Amino acid sequence: MYFGAVVRSRVRTPVARTRTYMLTCILEGVCCVDCHLPVAIRPVPFRPSRLSALSRLFCAVLLGILLVPARVSADEREAPTPGPNDRQITLAVKSYLEREHFLRKPIDDEIASRWFDAFLSALDPLKIYFLQSDVDSFAEKKTSLDDLVRKGDVDFAYEVYDRFLKRVDERIPIVEELLKTKLDFNQKESIVIDRDIAVWAKTQDEVRDKWRRRIKYDLLVQKMEKVGPEEARKKLLRRYTSFAKRMHQMNADELLETYLSSLTSSLDPHTSFMSPGTLENFEITMRLQLDGIGASLKGEDGYTTVAELVPGGAADKDGRLKRKDRIVGVGQDREGEVVDVVDMNLNDVVKLIRGKRGTVVRLKVIPVGQTVPTVYDIVRAKIELKDGAARGEIIEEGVKPDGSPWRIGVINLPSFYMDMAAARQGRADYKSSTRDCRKLLEGFREQGVDCVALDLRSNGGGSLPESISLTGLFIDTGPVVQIKDADQRVQQYDDLDPGVVWDGPLVVLVNKFSASASEIVAGAIQDYRRGLVIGDSATHGKGTVQSLLDLGRQLFQRLPNAPSLGALKITMQQFYRPSGLSTQLEGVKSDVELPSITNHLPVGEADLDHAIPFDRVDTAEFTSTDKVTDPMLKVLRKRSAERVAGDDEFLELATDIARYEERKNEKTLSLLESDFTKEWNEGKAAEKEEEKKQEENAGPRRPVVTRDFYFDEAMRVTTDYLAILSGAMPLIAKSGGDVRPESIE
To answer: Using CA atoms, how far apart are residues 563 and 233, in angstroms rounded to an integer?
Structure first.
């Protein structure tokens, strides 16, 4: 069983540019620079930064990600044709959804209507391509999709996508004209940044007006980034051309994934269909290893650009390939033909570069800052994705009564991973988050740490068994989670391993992006009163369990080598804490809450369409500890609140939050250059501050601990907690039931 990862990025501070608000509410489904197809419902990248002055500007900044295509030849305009397995896959997905999904809801006209809307939104979320007449013609089949899926008929997806490509191409003369036109940047007008109020164009005049505002926005962004007018136009045209080519390169697997995931998301936000390529990438993230060169790539204006190098990977050891280098060709073996990959679908480029360890891949590269390409021969190797694994560091905080610092062992855990294939094969050395954390805890114990801080911030989930076994590192035996299936049967899952690896003080750091398996661990630790939960007001609020059904294995069980047909990640159960509470929608509430912009952003489970409702089950039998008590919490909250109230950075954050609350409901962004410049400059100052912090923390690997005022306050709460546990800060009950710490001189 698997808990779908909600967010993979690492948010280390409580402040964030409100581009995230836009990403969640506006651009879900946008075709983006780093994607080869509409991203539909996918994890949202989230970068830490101080909140800018006006949220809508940074909502709009990502409008630049929605690329406009340039002219495409008639030969390239052919839409993908149905794949040979489309019907079989579709019938299987429909059958599993109706029989196995937690809601046991039939695919009827209501679901068909949701499906229709979700599919159009996945292709054209800002309503800038399709015409109202297109939507009206598609709507004739809106309530028939449920009937078509029962036949395995997916022709509607291809019909719509063919029209989409046609409209993409028809916009090109307008775009080219606008890029040559002198636009008036002193005209007081705006662009819609809220897709909920966006409307389809009815006439060609309305189409042109939509695109005039888009191009005006794009050029303003380029101007703010100090790009000259001529260079800006060339850059945008290049970007549009690249986008168009990628859309025309979409294959049957990718289109089917978008179409069927629009169906699955109509039942709940965490059920999805994975194409074979997506399934392969998912399995890599779970086992944290692959065969290749060890480079993270991204698409950028038609080029495949090196985003990061995996420390210790083949490319890193070779030493020639660098961040921001552009890969323009890929060849196999030392004498193989180098294939041009400019404007190629990023997934296709990745397929060319990956390969069996020990073989050679030839990369034609334009090094950063240069214009002449060179060729690198790199031998593929096994790549360990160590930055995705649990890592630890011992830090010193505060002062003990004897004058020495408290030693805190921090475990940074990005996800609950497990090499499922190796585990199925019975390999004793399979990779898992619990095994890695056990080693770290044993090391901390040997080095005499005073406390362990388990950092689950932005840990979006992973393996259910891992969440249970990892909790068992901190408790003796007893229930960790309760699971309810579609028949309302509740099963208790216990930690059956007697003893603990770490029995000392424990804190768990969480934020609104801590989800699924993270919430199981945090919830159990809190129910047992085993440790202190510190962070945002509550975690994400995902309380459902997904199972991964490999369709090839399911449909061809008797074949030794089943075909790769992708997989259905399907919500089959709901989970509950030992206390019987569900984390669904409500999450795990922090024992000590720290102010955070994410508390105010609509990025939780409750903000997702078709989320399953909250409920609860009976409390399981378990014995709690006294390591966290209500009197302790009262003191810790009071002392933290007093510090926060006098901290300059938290006060600045409070101002940012208030400003965000004032502006978050605005639906448009001004295109008047003076307004645009003012908002841009206010946000740019904060961005430079964040970039400086990131440079300070930069290195060959992602740091275990990133110091910022949020983390520092969490550690001050931790040292207060340790002082109380050690008796250095005794709790004295006053008359009336008040509890205060005895002052320490």
So the answer is: 46
**Residue 61 token pair:** 């900044």
pLDDT of residue 739: 41
Q: To the nearest whole percent, how much of the chain has pLDDT over 90? A: 64
The pTM of this model reads: 0.82
Handedness of CA 257, 261, 263, 264 (dihedral sign): positive
DSSP string, 591-632: SEE---GGGGSS-SGGGSTTPPPP-B-PPPP----SSS-HHH
Asked if residue 304 has pLDDT above 80, the reply is yes
Please compute Rg for the chain using Cα positions: 27
Q: How far apart are CA 533 and CA 511, in angstroms?
A: 10
pLDDT (tens digit, 9 = 90+) per residue, 174-213? Answer: 989 999 999 999 999 999 988 889 999 999 999 999 999 9
CA–CA distance, 175 with 196 (Å, rounded to integer) = 24
What is the CATH superfamily name and number for domain 289-384? PDZ domain (2.30.42.10)
- Rounded to whole angstroms, the Cα distance separating 147 from 149 reads 6
- Phi and psi, residue 234, nearest 5°: -65, -40
- CA 720/CA 699 separation, integer angstroms: 32
Q: Please tell me the distance from the alpha carbon of residue 364 to that of residue 370, in angstroms, as a whole number.
A: 13
Question: What phi, psi does 220 have (nearest 5°)?
Answer: -65, -40
pLDDT, position 477:
92
Q: Is the dihedral of CA 644, 646, 651, 657 positive or negative?
A: positive
Query: In this predicted model, what pLDDT tens digit does every residue of 511-531 receive, in sequence order?
Result: 999 999 999 999 999 999 999
Residue 159: count other Cβ atoms within 10 Å of its Cβ: 14
For residues 402 and 435, is the Cβ–Cβ distance under 8 A? no
Query: Concatenated DSSP letters for 441-452?
Result: HHHHHHTT-SEE
Of 61-70, 461-470, 582-591, 674-683, minimum mean pLDDT range: 61-70
In the chain, where the domains are located? 2-267, 289-384, 387-664+707-741
The number of beta carbons lying within 10 Å of the beta carbon of residue 351 is 13
The owner of tokens 């509410």 is 25
Residue 659 burial (CB count, 10 A) = 17
| pLDDT reported for residue 608 | 94
Q: What is the mean pLDDT of residues 479-483?
A: 98
Q: Which residues are catalytic?
A: 516, 527, 542
Per-position DSSP letters for 271-319, written without gaps between them? -EEE-HHHHHHHHHHHHTEEEE--EEEEEETTEEEEEEE-TTSHHHHH-
pLDDT at position 29 over 50: no
Amino acid 219 reads L
Domain 387-664+707-741 fold is 2-enoyl-CoA Hydratase; Chain A, domain 1 (3.90.226)
Is the distance from CB of 104 to CB of 134 less than 8 angstroms? no
Q: How far is CA 740 from CA 401, 506, 639, in A?
A: 19, 22, 10
Same fold: 289-384 with 387-664+707-741 = no
pLDDT at 439 over 90: yes
Q: What angle do CA 648, 650, 654 make, to 5 degrees?
A: 115
Local structure of 346: helix, strand or coil: helix
pLDDT of residue 294: 87
Position 289 confidence tier, pLDDT thresholds 50, 70, 90 = confident
Task: Give the mean pLDDT of 428-444.
Answer: 94
Instruction: List residues bridging with 391 in a β-sheet.
Output: 412
